[in-house]
Amino acid sequence: MLPSVTFGFALYVPVMMLVFEYLFTDDLGFKPSYMPSRRAALQALFLGILIPAVSAIIPVRSALAKSLADSLTTGRSKLSGILVTFTDNRNPSVAPYVLFGSLALIYGSSIYYFLPKAMLEMNLNLIL
User: What is the pLDDT, as a whole number, of residue 84?
Assistant: First the structure.
């Protein structure tokens, strides 16, 4: 966890230096700094350590809930049984599927058309 955060910080500086050299040329009239502020670096370090630590809590707790032999055995299945359900497919009703598919098609098409139009025209009523 800590080596990956350190590697990320070490790789950030040369990569951002190249990106900033490419994006911000001298004809723009200003040259922003690619070095993060102390506050931004501390926040990134805090999140880079906190998120993996929090995401490891659930797998560790589930491993500790079982015995050591059960936790280390990967060959056995973790499922205890199989559930089989039988359905009668002689008269399937496709009406709900067709209705939902049609509504989803209309909704998606309207978003695809009206959202860019509203953003280009700066029409907030149409966006909402």
Answer: 82
